[in-house]
Amino acid sequence: MQTRASLRVGDQPWVKWSLISLALFIVGTLLIVPLVAIFVQAFGDGVQGFLANITDTYTLHAISLTLLVAALTIPLNLVFGVFLAWLVTRFEFPGRKLLITLIDIPFAVSPVVAGLLYLLLYGSNGWLGSWLMDHDVQLMFSWPGILMVTVFVTCPFVARELIPLMQQQGKEEEEAGVTLGASGWQLFRRVTLPNIQWALIYGVVLTNARAMGEFGAVSVVSGNIRGETNTLPLHVELLYQDYNAVGAFTSASLLAGIALITLFVKSFVEWRQARQRRVLDEVSE
Amino acid sequence: MSIRVENISKRFGQFQALQPLTLEIPDGELVGLLGPSGSGKTTLLRIIAGLETADTGRILFHGQDVTNVHVRDRRVGFVFQHYALFRHMTVAQNVAFGLEVLPKAERPSNTEIYKRVANLLEMVQLGHLAKRYPSQLSGGQKQRVALARALAMQPQVLLLDEPFGALDAKVRKDLRRWLRSLHDELHFTSVFVTHDQEEALELSDKVVVMSAGKIEQVDSPQELYSRPESRFVFDFLGHINVLDAQVKGTRLQQGDAWVELPKPITVPVAQLYLRPHEVHLQQVPVAHANLPLTINAVSLIGAEVRLELQPDGWQADEPWEIGISHAQYNAWQPMRGDRCYAVPDIGHLFMEGVTEPETLTWASTLIQDPNFPKRSAHLAEVS
C-alpha cells in the first residue's frame, strides 16, 4: 500500500530542522554568547580582580543606591498598582477605559523622554523645580529624582498584571463578602488579596528587575555624580568610558545575575499562576 | 421579617431596568420573582439586598426604612447564581466567614464558631466535605455550601439569585425540594429569582411575574395558572397554542381553521389561547371546531407524549403542542406527517382592548369521541 504524504504545514523534516537550527543560532549568538561573555570578562582578572572591583567604594555605593531605589519603588508601585486595578475593575465611571489606556504610557514613551520631562518640570529652571528650589528642595541630580523617574517607568507593571485577573475573577466574591458583613479592609485582606497574590508577586518581580536595570530615564536626571547619584547601570557605563573593561563587566555581571534570578522567580510564579488559573477554570465550569 | 418595596425604580444609562414598582412580601413567605432575562428581576433582588441602589423609592424591612442602610448592615442572606464561594478557603472556612468578620464584641468564641459551622454543614448534608476546596465540589454541593454560608448569620431574609440556574435538571429538583423544606423549618422570608416557570410555580407561596421592569401579576401559583391577568403572563407560563382569527358572528375563522364560540362577540379580531392539556386530538373535526394539523414531531419524554403540530391550511406563529397519554399513544401510534384535528375543551379568548382573557368551555366535547383514531383505521383511510 502506498503511504500518503502528509499535507500539514511545516511537516517536512527539512523545514522543521532548518527552522529549529535557525532559532538556536539566533538565540545562541544574540542571547547566550553575550551573557557568557559578561561573566568571562568579569572574571578576566581572576576571582581576586572580581572581588577587588566589587568592593570598590564607588561600586559599593552604586549597588546600595540601586537597592535603595528598588526598595522604595516596589512598595510605592505595589500600593499604586493595587489601587488602580481595584479602581478600574470594581467601579464604573466616565473615563475608565481612558484610564486603562493611560496606564500604558510609560511603556509607550521612551525612558529618555520621560527623564527629560521630569528634568524640565522639576529641574532648577523648571516650572515646579524653581519653586522647589526656593524652598531648598532639590529633586533632580539627587536620589529622589532617580526614584521619581524609576517609579514612572515601572508603574504599569503591577496594575497591568492585576487588571486582567481581577476582571476575570469578577466582583461576586467581594459582594458575597460584603453581604456577610465584612468591612472594606476585611474584604481586601481576606477575599481580594489571596486571590491576586501571585499576580501581585509577578508584578513585583518585573518592577524590581526594571527598577534595578533602568538606564535611560535615570541617566537624564542623575547627573552621574560618582558616589552620589550613580546607579549600577550608570556605573557600568562610567567604568567602561574610563577604559576599565573588567570593572564595567563586573558591575554588569551583577545586573546579569539579578536578571537570571528574576527569570527564575518569574517562571516559578508563572507556574503557580497557571495552576491557579486551572483551578479557576474548574470553578467557573 | 416582612419586606416592602415602595416605588422603586432603577435606570442603567439609557436602559430603564425597573419602572417605579411597589411590592409587599409578608413575613415568612417564599416568593419567586419570575420573568425573562432583562425583566429587572435580578436588579430588584439586588436592590432589596442593598447591592444596588435604587434611583427612587424606599425599601422597608419589618416597617423600618433600610433604603440607606449599607448592605453590610442589612444582614440579609444572599445566594449568588454562580455561588461566589471564596475559592481559596475550604468549605468550613467559607461557612465560618460571616461569623469571623463580626466585630470582636459580637463574635462568638472559636469553639462556638466551629460548632455552628459543623451544625450548618450537617444541615446541608456536607459535613464530610468540610476540608475540601470549592473547586473540588460539584455544582449542587457548591450551592449548598453557599446556602450554609448565607444562613450562618441567621438572617431573617434570604435572597437567592437564580439559585438553581447553573445546575442540571435532577440536582435542581432535589435542591428545590430541599430549600422548600428548609424554608418551612426555619421560617425566614425568602425571595428568589428565576426564569423557570416550573420552578417558580412549584417552590413559591407567591409568584411575582415581571416583564420589562414592571410587575405583571402577583399571585399564588394556583391563581396565577388559573387566572392569568395578561397575555404576557399567559405566554410565560408554559406553552400556548394560539389561533389568531377574525370574528364572524359566533365563529372565529382563519384560513381553513374555524372555531364556533359559545356566544357571539363584538370585536373584529381575537386570539384564542389553548393550553396543551385543554385540547384533545381526533381523526375528524367536530361540529364546533375545525382545526386541521399535521404532526411535525412526536416526543415520548415524560408523563405524556408530546406532539408538535403544524397548522394545515392556516397560520400560527409557533407550532402547536398537544400532549396525549401513553395509552392513547399506544392505541393510535401517531407518526410524523399524519393529519389530525384539534378540539378545544377549554379556551381563553383575548379580545382587542381588553388585557384579561375570557375563559370559554365547550361542554359537549368532553364526551368520549367514538371515532378515537386508531393506527390501523387511519392507515386504511390513507391508502
From TrEMBL, chain A:
UniProt xrefs under SUPFAM superfamilies: MetI-like
GO molecular function, one term: ABC-type sulfate transporter activity
Domain ABC transmembrane type-1: 63-270
Keyword field: Cell inner membrane, Cell membrane, Membrane, Sulfate transport, Transmembrane, Transmembrane helix, Transport
CDD domains registered for this protein in UniProt: TM_PBP2
Membrane topology note: Multi-pass membrane protein
Chief place where the protein resides: membrane
S-adenosyl-L-methionine as UniProt keyword: no
InterPro entries according to UniProt: CysW_permease, MetI-like, MetI-like_sf, Sulph_transpt2
Compartments, as annotated in UniProt: Cell inner membrane
NCBIfam families: 3a0106s02, permease_CysW, PRK11602.1
Function: Part of the ABC transporter complex CysAWTP (TC 3.A.1.6.1) involved in sulfate/thiosulfate import. Probably responsible for the translocation of the substrate across the membrane.
Oligomeric and partner information: The complex is composed of two ATP-binding proteins (CysA), two transmembrane proteins (CysT and CysW) and a solute-binding protein (CysP).
Protein name per UniProt: Sulfate transport system permease protein CysW
Naturally occurring in which organism (per UniProt): Nitrincola nitratireducens
